[in-house]
Design goal:
β1 and β2 form a beta hairpin. The protein is of the alpha/beta class. α3 runs antiparallel to α10, α13 crosses α19 and α16 runs antiparallel to α19. It binds adenosine-5'-triphosphate. Adenosine-5'-triphosphate (ATP) binds next to α1.
Length: about 600
């Protein structure tokens, strides 16, 4: 039994409290199928989210089997299925792969046999078995809704909440989905609540809840709606609602609800007696009606009524055993393999990554000629000819400028291109799938497993991009480092790419949309070159504030410091910006990586349902 007692969900607007859900009192017994209807903006989705725990109630109480959920803790993630308005499957995956990933993320299965059994069962239940190999992107609207349901059913939820799962469907598909929801409510004592705009197929529901401005205007049998509102057709209900205030509808309903509840109870008894509604053994059949007229009370306090009896022994099964959420490693591995699969299925993405990987280092090598030039040495002996000495010094100076500028420029070019790759790697990584992530988090996904899978996936890209950049450029313009100089250079390339990837991942986790995250990440990369001081020296006052935050400066400075002394001297002769110690550069970049990951962790944990 799910019971809502005087439930309100209040928001503050311009300093004023507004109840989007206002004093809702309803009782919904196990095995019940209820439609939530009402004009657009009346609070249907808000009520559904309040029941799901996504909008914590501002006052009143929600009870499950007599247990106060706000006091004794919410239902287990596996006990609630929430099918939102948006698609929760990835287009490149197949139906079977989507259901498999949903199962592995939500249910700790004993072995592969149980996994296959669960997948086959929900595919069968939702009528998707025949198209299990089809990719999500080619599914029809109705099939996508079925898939959304299948992905929720994997954990055998006792409470299934559906938000507009029939909107936009043709009448036949709509009826099929409503029929499917009806059938799902007949098994295992599952409560199915469905928010819908449509007033078609109402006869398939056990009860209809009509909301008006967040208040209950009616909750009773579908065939009594027209009678209650004194209209000929259900289509006339919404215009009728507008004829008086929602407060009046609410108080009128509180006065007249008893006979409607009693009709609901009668129908329910008949269903159970006829065997059409199966409640699991041990589940008590409780009435929709309350113990006292006009007042509701927690189910646990309601006295036993005629209806309240243990379901008959003809019931097919015991209450399904408790489903456990899988551990960190299972969720991590599932997400990581799903991410690689999505990556390889998206040919455009693979092509872009390969093009960037191969072309960016080629771009750098276009400037390698001067970097390979020699820097003449000054003669040890005085020649006694002042003109010859000046000419020699000028030659050395010219070499230093040519070679020093080329080497500094090549290092900075590598650093900037790897920054760009870093931002391209991760700017959309979380923001682009935020809704699906929120949905999966609601279903029991650990943010730590999610973030770890992102870090593992991105680390592979960072490794490939940075190593290839360093090694390829080195073939054409060998890094002129002292002992261990090339290794240091590679580490700084890895760190700059890692830092930008981590920071943009943080941005991606904190922003509300993928567009915002991309834009901010691009700006961040765009500022790296001018603020690094590698091209133009910054005024001291600006440099003091900005330098700490510019990853490109630390990577460039660290790599330049790893050059052999003569080349380092040449570079120093062409720059006005001071270089930092290698160790300091390492610490600063490690700090940038850590800051990005901490931001990503904070953003991933944050609740961001639309
Ligand atoms: N967190 C929120 N803050 C402010 N206003 C909100 C919030 N959530 C919902 N609303 C507003 O509350 C009202 C009810 O929204 P809700 O989405 O529940 O309506 P609905 O009945 O489901 O509408 P529709 O049928 O069009 O989907 C709307 O006016 C909406 O803009």
């Amino acid at each position: 039994m799910l019971e809502l007692q005087d439930v309100c969900f209040t928001i503050k607007k311009d300093g004023e409290s507004i109840n989007l859900v206002d004093l809702v009192n309803i009782r919904i017994p196990r095995g019940h199928f209820m439609a939530i209807v009402g004009p657009s903006g009346c609070g249907k989705t808000t009520l559904l989210k309040t029941i799901a725990g996504l909008n914590p109630e501002s006052s009143g109480g929600l009870y499950w089997e007599g247990r106060n959920l706000s006091v004794e803790g919410d239902l287990e993630a596996s006990d609630i299925g929430y099918v939102p308005q948006f698609s929760i499957a990835y287009d490149p995956l197949t139906v079977d792969e989507s259901v498999e990933a949903a199962t592995k993320l939500r249910v700790a299965v004993r072995d592969n046999e149980e996994l296959d059994h669960r997948i086959d069962r929900v595919l069968e239940e939702t009528g998707l078995a025949a198209i299990a190999d089809r990719q999500v992107k080619v599914l029809s609207g109705g099939q996508k809704r079925r898939l959304g349901l299948a992905m929720e059913l994997v954990s055998d939820p006792k409470l299934l909440l559906c938000d507009e799962v029939t909107s936009g469907l043709d009448p036949r598909s709509e009826r099929e989905i409503v029929r499917l929801l009806h059938d799902l409510s007949r098994r295992e004592g599952r409560i199915v609540l469905s928010v819908t705009h449509s007033l078609a197929h109402l006869e398939l529901y056990d009860s209809i809840l009509v909301l008006h401005e967040g208040r209950v205007a009616y909750h009773g049998p579908p065939d009594q709606v027209t009678h209650y509102f004194s209209v000929h057709d259900t289509e006339e209900v919404y215009p009728k609602l507008a004829t008086q205030t929602s407060e009046r509808w609410q108080s009128s309903w509180m006065k007249h609800r008893a006979p409607y509840y009693s009709k609901l109870d009668k129908v329910r008894t008949k269903l159970i007696d006829s065997g059409a509604l199966h409640l699991p053994l041990g589940v008590v059949n409780q009435p929709v009606s309350t113990s006292s007229q006009g007042e509701s009370a927690p189910a646990a306090e309601v006295g036993t009524t005629v209806l309240e009896k243990v379901a008959p022994l003809t019931s097919p099964a015991e209450e399904t055993p408790k489903v456990r959420t899988p551990g960190f490693m299972t969720q991590f591995m599932t997400l990581l393999s799903r991410r690689w699969r999505i990556f390889f299925r998206d040919r455009g993405q693979v092509f872009l990554q390969l093009a960037i990987l191969l072309c960016f280092p080629i771009l750098v090598t276009l400037f390698s000629e001067n970097a390979n030039g020699q820097i003449a040495n000054l003669s040890d002996t005085r020649q006694g000819n002042i003109v010859a000495e000046i000419a020699e010094q000028q030659t050395v100076k010219r070499d230093q400028v040519t070679v020093g500028s080329a080497i500094s420029g090549i290092i900075m070019f590598q650093v900037i291109l790897l920054s760009l790759m870093g931002s391209n790697n991760s700017a959309r990584e979380i923001a682009g799938e935020r809704q699906i992530f929120e949905k999966e988090k609601f279903g029991g996904l650990r943010p730590s497993a999610y973030l770890a899978s992102k870090v593992a996936f991105l680390a592979c890209l960072v490794l490939a991009q940075s190593l290839w950049m360093g090694v390829f450029v080195n073939l054409f313009a060998p890094f002129r480092g002292g002992g261990g100089g090339f290794e240091s250079h590679i580490i700084f390339l890895l760190l700059i790419n890692g830092a930008m990837t981590a920071i943009c991942l943080g941005i991606s986790a904190l922003m509300r949309t993928a567009e915002q995250a991309s834009l901010l990440s691009i700006y961040l990369v765009g500022f790296q070159l001018p603020l690094s001081g590698a091209v133009l020296a910054l005024p001291d006052s600006v440099e003091f504030f900005t330098q700490k935050f510019i990853s490109a400066y630390w990577a460039w400075s660290g790599s330049v410091s790893a050059l052999e002394p003569k080349v380092l001297h040449a570079v120093k002769s062409v720059i006005d910006t001071g270089l930092a110690e290698r160790a300091e550069c390492l610490y600063m970049l490690a700090f940038h990586v850590a800051a990005g990951l901490i931001a990503a962790w904070i953003g991933a944990r944050r609740h961001q349902w639309d």
